[in-house]
């Protein structure tokens, strides 16, 4: 009996110490890094959908759609993306990006472009990529209406119309608010010539200091990373470390590129 108890204690200690190893050697990766994968989503066109609107959308296009949250593992390329603008810190971010000679991708909201058209034009004129973040940042995780896909499409196309009118360009990347990327969102995107792009790492909304935030972003630098940040509010912590962060990325031998370069994607009509 004594031997048995010793054996049980020994086994428990062994299992516990193995469990602790990743923590001891800091090998635990930030949760977001796991999102970095290419997901193939296959739609079943025969699935029973209730509204005519959804059936109409389903008939329009076919089956295999892709969601991106990173680029290739093999290329030393990284993309910086800024959401929700043009906003209070866009101007400063543009100045920093100019100083460090980096091009980013801006996921803009239609209603914010309407409020700040000149700022949107400036982002585009400086050579950054413009992408669609829908018109008004509706949260489709919470949306329960039967017309969900129709609402998504409406938000997408309303924003697109504004971008086309103001900047004379048709965006082809969309990030739905809060990274909503379920089958219906991806389908709506592809039906309208868009690719859904989320991110491999983003944390600029967290209630932590700028220094810690900077450290976490730096820790997530790797091949194909897509960093998510926001070009608001005015006192965004990102402004405190963006310049240093970009320099660190470059010093580590990475090229900072737009999403179309990172993902090697051109608009559907240019293929
Ligand atoms: Zn957003």
At a glance:
The protein is of the alpha/beta class and about 270 residues long. The chain has helices at about 1-25, 50-60, 90-100, 110-115, 115-125, 150-165, 185-190, 210-220, 240-250, 260-265; strands at about 40, 65-70, 75-85, 105-110, 130, 175, 195, 200, 225-230, 255.
Reconstruct the topology from this structure.
Elements: H1 2-24, E1 39-42, H2 52-60, E2 64-68, E3 77-83, H3 90-99, E4 105-108, H4 110-115, H5 117-125, E5 129-132, H6 148-167, E6 173-174, H7 183-191, E7 195-197, E8 201-202, H8 210-219, E9 226-230, H9 238-251, E10 255-257, H10 259-263
Parallel strand pairs: 2-7, 3-4, 3-9, 3-10, 4-5, 6-7, 8-9
Antiparallel strand pairs: 1-2
Helix pairs in contact: 3-9, 6-7, 8-9
Describe this structure in words.
The model is unreliable at 17-35 and 40-65 (pLDDT under 50). The longest helix is centred in the first third of the chain and has 23 residues, at 2-24. Helices cover 42% and strands 14% of the residues. The strands form two sheets. Strands 3, 4, 5, 8, 9 and 10 form a six-stranded parallel β-sheet that branches. It has a four-stranded mixed β-sheet with strand order 1-2-7-6, with helices on one face. It has a single domain (29-263), classed as Glycoside hydrolase/deacetylase (TIM Barrel, Alpha-Beta Barrel), CATH 3.20.20.370. With 271 residues, the protein is of the alpha/beta class. The chain starts with a helix and ends in an 8-residue tail after the last helix. The protein has ten helices and ten strands. Zinc ion binds at residues 83-84, 133, 137, 177.
